[in-house]
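Tutorial, part two.
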Amino acid sequence: MTVLLLGSMLILMFTGIQIAFAILASSTLFLLVTDMQPLFIIPQKLINGLDSFPLIAVPLFIVAGDLMDKGGISKRLVNWCECLVGSFAGGLGGVAIVASAVFAALTGSGPATVAAIGAIMVPSMVERGYKDYEATGLVTASGALGPIIPPSIPMILYGSTMSVSIPRMFSGALIPGIFITILLLTTNNIRSKRIPRINSIPRIPFSWKALGKSTINAIWALIMPIIVLGGIYSGIFTPTEAAAIACVYGLIIGLFVYREVKITELPKYMANAMKASSIGVFITGAANLMGFIFTNSKITDAITNAIVSNITSQSVYLITLMLFLFVVGSLMDTFATILIIAPLAVPAGIALGIDPLFLGVLFVINLVVGFITPPFGCNLFIATAITGVKYEQVVKGVLPYMITEIVAVMIIAFCPWMITWLPSVLF
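Running the prediction step on this input gives:
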């Protein structure tokens, strides 16, 4: 019966049917064949799956990202990063990486980070000597920091699905996010020194005066992650409430401080958020039905027992899980992967004695690498749409940084303190 459920879903997905409808159809087929429950369980579980307070944060963070991008926050962040790291070898590439990391701490979205930073940085990098695929590849890889550095939309989804504390996941992802940022900066620096064309690009001399001036210009943008994350970690508000605060903050700054947001554009931002989040939320409802089937038909227990009986080492389990997620993350939507794969694969790791928090953060970070892994990494398509660079060229440009991120994830997997230390201090 497991083959019937998962097999029919995969067949439907690979024939081009949307993931949410593939999940619904395969689940309905399973219920009909097994006569497990009356079919009225389908709308019931769909509605129950959508009845989740943390999920409200998803469209709210998307609106906040639009407000920050259109309201001038991303532009000022880039200027600040340029004053901070523009004097190093490959300084423009470093600016793109640091700006992506900071913007990630504002929106929690990989595609939003690629769109916002890419629109500003890629033309500037190409104008100064980078080839278009080099600039686009770097920004695409840096955009993967969006779902890692908190707040993170995939972590919100994972936490609500697997009953793991979302604030603890956020704090657990902070050190890995900084670690990956440092490795990307190192890779960019080494590559820049080896490519004379890039190494000869005039650098921006470091100046405390210029840094101070750009800090003042960007101060309202730099304060925002302190408010959002500080409020979450201190317990003042939940991640969902933080998303609402981010929207209000972005609106006030865009309307009254930088004055680059127009009231007439607000319906467009909300419509964009609705479109971007609706398919993911629909998948959540459909996956709730499939999760019900997994639980009641003992599929999860059977898979857990099969894994535990054949894999007795935590190290072997982690390596197997990571390799699997690297592949799945490039083929499936992140929402669908979390909602379908996590309930099946994670219980086995917990049964082997792995910390659920560590496993959850590692699971999401693994999936994020899939954002930039061909053939279906979503950041690759976002970058192609924004810059007009051909898909295969974007893949060529992203390859060195994709390898860096894979190595980083492997290191994090075998240094669990990088994830567990900060939550143990804060909570």
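The mean pLDDT is 81. In part three we will examine how such features are distributed along the chain.
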